[in-house]
Amino acid sequence: MKQVTFPKIATVVINFKTPALTLDCLSSLAPEIRCFPGSKAIVVDNASGDGSLVDLRETVKLRLWDDWVEIVESAYNSGFSAGNNLGIAAGQRLGGFDAFLLMNSDTIIYQGALQALAHALWTEPTIGLVGPRLEWPSGEVQPSCFRAISPTTEMAGAAKTGALSRLLRGDLPLSIDSENGTQREALDWISFACVLIRNEALSAIGPMDEGFFMYFEDVDYCRRANQAGWRIAYVPEARVVHLRGGVTPGEFSQNERRRRPRFYYESRSRYLAKYYGRTGPFRANLLWTLGRGISLARELTGGKSPHTAAREAHDIWIGALGGLRNRTTDQGSDRA
User: Are 116 and 25 members of one domain?
Assistant: First the structure.
């Protein structure tokens, strides 16, 4: 691929008690960002309170990264949306950036990935957001392209049957050809573990909704992008490792069955209320319960393993009430 020297890109990485991961992320980014003269990386420390700031500042100085790494200190743990907004605002004050790359601290970008993302963005003016191929360290693909979430897809997701998923379009992860990147249908949303956003799109869509402390903020932002007329794209040539806490795919699947934090369900409820009215979370829960009845019957009669999270049938109803507040619960956690 021909080297891309335009545009200028500001990368935002949020650190919350993960200085080693953040520095590894920056190390992988260093050769990439130098292909884009004038580009910067902005690290937002979300009030880690664990010495992260000292580690980050000392290492940035030691590795002579001062010319392209800026460190911003948040007064409190503001969550994923607000932390990214803080970093984006810092980049906008510096001025002149054509796109913003949002990266989790537990991501490692492969050589050429940023150029591939920038090339896709700048050869298709209607694309506002573009995401890479997310991988496990083993190279196995992580799902990162999805259909929209709605009350009916909640039923299909809980039922976990192929026929119902096809009927209700509830099979949320989209099948993307990992070899040639064929995009068989429009993407409703992509994972924000790593995403490149055109500055014009960012200006049109606005900042991320800070009412989402963590989770569903990417679903929400992509929906707003679609509503504003911006396309969302996937570039498999851009490869990014997403460590997810260093677990294997099998261990991650097991972890997904554990009880989720309260703010996950509050964020889910906030999203459903935002786009389907205040009754949206309750309608979604009723349909989820119906779908869960289908999957439970299959488990009892067919010996299938449960696929829902622990106590999910209880927690969706508690979250339905909490998510109607202006902001979801601050749990002092980071996003992985």
Answer: yes
